[in-house]
Specification:
Strand content of chain A: 35-45%
Largest sheet of chain A: 5 strands, mixed
Distance between the termini of chain A: 59 Å
CATH architecture of chain A: Beta Barrel
Strand order of the largest sheet of chain A: 8-1-2-10-9
CATH topology of chain A: OB fold (Dihydrolipoamide Acetyltransferase, E2P)
Shape of chain B: elongated
Number of strands of chain A: 10
Radius of gyration of chain B: 36 Å
CATH class of chain A: Mainly Beta
Number of strands of chain B: 21
Structural class of chain A: alpha+beta
CATH topology of the largest domain in chain B: Heat Shock Protein 90
Oligomer: heterodimer
Structural class of chain B: alpha+beta
CATH superfamily of the largest domain in chain B: Histidine kinase-like ATPase, C-terminal domain
Low-confidence stretches of chain B: 125-143, 275-285, 504-513, 687-691
Shape of chain A: globular
Largest interface: A-B, 33 and 30 residues
Mean pLDDT of chain A: 75
Strand content of chain B: 15-25%
CATH class of the largest domain in chain B: Alpha Beta
Helix content of chain B: 40-55%
CATH architecture of the largest domain in chain B: 2-Layer Sandwich
Chain lengths: 181, 691
């Protein structure tokens, strides 16, 4: 009896949405995903950290957009046809807020059982590992499973705010409007 | 049920607030009969609804209070300070026990007893007989009159089907007064037709009671729908006990069951016998007239005053109006791009209507600042007594209206400021006399419109704030270097610094040093600002500047780089055109406009926008805390009504953007807070200058 329960637990299926970032596969629990948008006009907020791309109009409310690539220590996103915004629920100061994550392309929704999820890698990565809750072996390579609350936690946002202020001054290219064309 | 309770609580709290202000007025004009009447009536209403909602403890407590004011009304008691003190404390007590109706909290129980004792001792001996009996004292004016009624109660034959026992109703009537019941039966032809499940009896009654006709009707509340009920007022004395009708009624008793009362004959006896009437009739008439007058007053009051609307309904109305304003902007844009005469007319009309709708909806969310002033009067009264100071507290312009959300967030800061004025500002009586001031301190709270803003000033004639002391303290706390050269205003600004308090000892009233920085923060949160002005020995004035509303800003739509921004019109002074090259060659960041040297901020530079600088740039002169500052934008597009939307918490470090708004074409424009822009970027200018 006990074993049966255990078996059922280990084989619990979870749905993930996979997407591409700089040629790598990532995935996020679909429970966190609200919708996927094409990239509209993004209004830049002056002097914001570089990964905070700007804000968009989401049916009358203002949605902040995060460049997920910069956030993970990858080069800045390059707007192409496939570039998408994944609208997610994130926990900010104990409140659920919507935030849009810019990704290179959205791939598919898939189910995996939890026993297939491997612990996150400890070496040989060129991106920030704090956000990765596990990984999963797919046909054409590994898929990183993301811990979205961690990615958008305000603690982290503040940390980035401080470290990016100087970076921002150096680059000095803020305020240029971005388009998806 | 909880819904009912919250309605009750809301009503009582509102009445208590009204009572409090009336009481404070009564203290000043103790002989104002109108006020006593008003106080009495409010108490009466509280008692009535408390009884109705089953808050018996509240009702019993208010009843005693009410009796006092009843006596004052009748000239049997004088209003004294002690009385008003007790009443005010009682009101506080009622506020508490409304939340704790069963007196579960021991303190509440204790204070209930203590206050009741105090009240009773004020009333004196004669009041002791007053019991907490609520049912009978619904209306004291009628209470003293016994009226006689004729009631005919013919229940529906099927009344038993829903479990009603008509006898219970008769029992209830019995409790109301002297009652004679004459049961009657409907005719049954054959005993075989008798159906025991049907109610075939009906009743006629004569009742002499203190209750009103309405209350008698209430007894039949649950059978009203399917029974035939007739209630007639017969006379204003006890028909059962008093001649000439007494004998008639006793006669009736002897009549066999089933014969109806000859009501016409009874009426005739009554009208033929004027003996008993004289005095009483007159009185009852005057009472009735008075009642009618009161009722008229009440209905009139209802007609001219307002309706209650749940505040979240108002909020959602405001949201819809905001959406409409946004949609209207899209329509105007579309009409402009696709010019057809019909569309233009429609678009213009929609614009007009939406503007009107916006103004009306805004008007609804505005409430006079008066609503919170009572609390301050009370605070001043209590705190000044505690500190042994006499204060002349004046309020000016309390009809000034503000957004209800602003008013809500304004209470705490104003409390703090007033406490500070009382505690630190106004000197003790001796000190005041020593410097030839009147021993009575003065505090003035003044609200007035100033352009698109509302100003609230708190002015006292106390000792003022000595900038030297503030400076010393700031140096002491390491907030300032000793040789810093600051203007008096800048020094006084340290008052708002967190953890800054110049009083060494902490009093009950203030002095913990958490006050003024919280005040400034709270006021900044509602897009307001606070300034201090003080003259040593003469007094201190604090000015709070507030926007009229939080949700829509009239502004200038401008472009910097490729992004749109909105500059609130309330700060815009003037616009100029200047060639961009001129800005680069500025000496000392000062711009010479209209013969005036004006400090200048190039927003392109501040926002780190490098590409595509225009040849001609627009300069907007804005008011920044009493001085003028020029800011540059690429282009001024139009005047625009911006519906403010919060930008996410992710941008809380970009506090110079007070919100975002959605333009007609669906893109987002950022609303600039020019005061914050100036303070943020001018600091940077200072920093770079030092380097």
């Amino acid at each position: 009896m006990k074993e049966a329960v255990k078996e059922a637990e280990t084989h619990k299926m979870t749905s993930y949405l996979s997407f591409l970032l700089d040629g790598e596969y990532f995935a996020v629990n679909v429970a966190k995903v609200i919708e996927i948008l094409e990239v509209p006009n993004i209004t830049k907020i002056p002097r914001a950290p570089e990964y905070m791309t700007g804000v968009i109009n989401l049916r009358g409310s203002v949605l902040p957009i995060v460049d997920t690539r910069i956030k993970f220590g990858l080069p800045k996103i390059d707007f192409k046809v496939d570039t998408c915004i994944i609208v997610l629920d994130a926990e900010v100061e104990g409140e659920t807020t919507k935030v849009g994550a810019l990704v290179d392309a959205v791939l598919e929704v898939f189910d995996i059982s939890e026993d297939k999820i491997l612990p996150s890698p400890s070496i040989n990565t060129n991106y920030n590992l704090d956000f990765i809750s596990g990984m999963f072996r797919a046909d054409d390579g590994f898929v990183m499973l993301l811990n979205m609350d961690e990615v958008f936690s305000v603690r982290d946002v503040q940390l980035f705010n401080n470290s990016n202020e100087s970076q921002l001054d150096d680059e000095g290219d803020y305020g240029t409007e971005m388009h998806n064309d | 049920m909880s819904d009912m309770n919250s309605i009750y609580e809301e009503e009582v709290l509102e009445l208590l607030e009204k009572l409090e202000s009336s009481l404070l007025l009564l203290e000043i004009t103790p002989n104002d009969d109108g006020l006593v009447e008003e106080i009495f009536r409010s108490m009466h209403t509280i008692k009535g609804s408390s009884g109705m909602f089953g808050y018996d403890n509240v009702a019993a407590f208010v009843h005693n209070l009410e009796s006092i004011y009843d006596q004052i009304r009748e000239g049997k008691l004088e209003t004294t300070k002690q009385l008003i003190d007790v009443t005010l404390t009682s009101l506080d007590h009622i506020k508490r026990i409304v939340k704790d109706p069963d007196l579960k909290d021991e303190n509440n129980d204790l204070s209930q007893k203590k206050l009741t004792d105090q009240i009773i001792s004020i009333m004196g001996e004669q009041a002791l007989q007053v019991k907490n009996d609520l049912i009978e004292i619904k209306d004291d004016l009628v209470e003293k009159e016994i009226l006689s009624y004729y009631i005919s109660f013919i229940p529906n034959e099927d009344i038993f089907d829903n479990g009603t026992n008509p006898l219970f109703i008769l029992d209830e009537l019995f409790e109301l007064g002297d009652c004679k019941i004459f049961p009657q039966f409907k005719n049954i032809e054959n005993i075989e037709d008798f159906d025991p499940t049907k109610c075939l009896s009906f009743w006629e009654l004569l009742i002499a009671t203190k209750s009103s006709k309405e209350e008698l009707k209430d007894v039949f509340l649950f059978v009203e729908g399917d029974s035939e009920i007739k209630i007639e007022t017969l006379c204003n004395y006890n028909i059962v006990e008093v001649e000439p009708t007494k004998s008639f009624v006793t006669q009736l008793n002897k009549i066999e069951c089933g014969n109806p009362i000859n009501i016409e004959e009874l009426k005739k006896i009554i009208s033929d016998n004027p003996v008993q009437k004289n005095k009483k009739i007159i009185r009852s008439n005057s009472v009735k007239e008075f009642n009618k007058e009161v009722e008229d007053n009440l209905t009139q009051e209802k007609r001219i005053s307002s309706i209650r609307v749940a505040s979240d309904k108002l909020d959602s109305l405001m949201n819809i109006v905001s959406e409409l304003v946004t949609t209207k902007a899209s329509l105007s844009l579309y009409a402009e791009n696709n010019p057809t005469p019909e569309l233009e007319i429609i678009s213009e009309n929609v614009e007009k209507l939406s503007r009107q709708l916006r103004d009306t909806a805004f008007g609804m969310t505005l409430i006079p600042i008066k609503n919170i002033m009572n609390r301050f009067q009370r605070l001043i009264r209590d705190v000044s007594a505690e500190l042994g100071k006499t204060i002349d507290f004046e309020i000016e312009g309390d009809e000034t209206e503000l957004d209800k959300n602003i008013i809500e967030s304004l209470t705490d800061p104003l409390m703090h400021i007033l406490r500070n004025s009382l505690d630190h500002g106004i000197e003790s009586k001796d000190e005041r006399q020593a410097v030839n001031k009147s021993p009575t301190g003065k505090i003035l709270l003044k609200a007035f419109y100033s352009g698109p803003n509302v100003h609230i000033q708190i002015k006292d004639d106390g000792k003022g704030i000595n900038p030297e002391i503030i400076k010393a303290k700031a140096v002491d706390k390491g907030l300032l270097s000793e040789d810093a050269d600051l203007s008096e205003k800048e020094i006084l600004d340290f008052i708002f610094h967190p953890g800054f308090s110049t009083v060494n000892e902490v009093t009950d009233v203030s002095g913990r040093g958490v006050g003024m920085d919280v005040v400034r923060r709270n006021i900044n949160d509602i897009r307001g600002s606070v300034e201090i002005y003080s003259v040593v020995g003469v007094g201190t004035t604090l000015t709070i500047k507030l926007p009229l509303t939080l949700s829509i800003v009239d502004g200038l739509l401008v472009k910097i780089g490729s992004s749109n921004y909105v500059v609130p019109l309330s700060v815009v002074e003037k616009c100029h055109e200047v060639s961009y090259n001129k800005l680069d060659n500025l000496f000392n960041k000062l711009l010479l406009l209209d013969g005036e040297q004006i400090p200048f901020l190039n927003l392109r530079e501040e926002f780190k926008i490098t590409d595509g600088a225009p040849k001609i740039t627009q300069i907007i002169i804005v008011n920044n805390e009493e001085r003028k500052v020029a800011i540059s934008v690429d282009n001024i597009i139009d005047e625009y009504q911006a519906v403010l939307k919060p930008i996410s918490k992710y941008y809380k470090d970009q506090e110079f953007i007070s919100g975002a708004t959605i333009l007609g074409d669906g893109t987002v424009a950022l609303v600039l807070d020019t005061n914050k822009i100036v303070s943020k970027f001018s600091e940077q200018i200072k920093k770079t200058e030092k380097v």
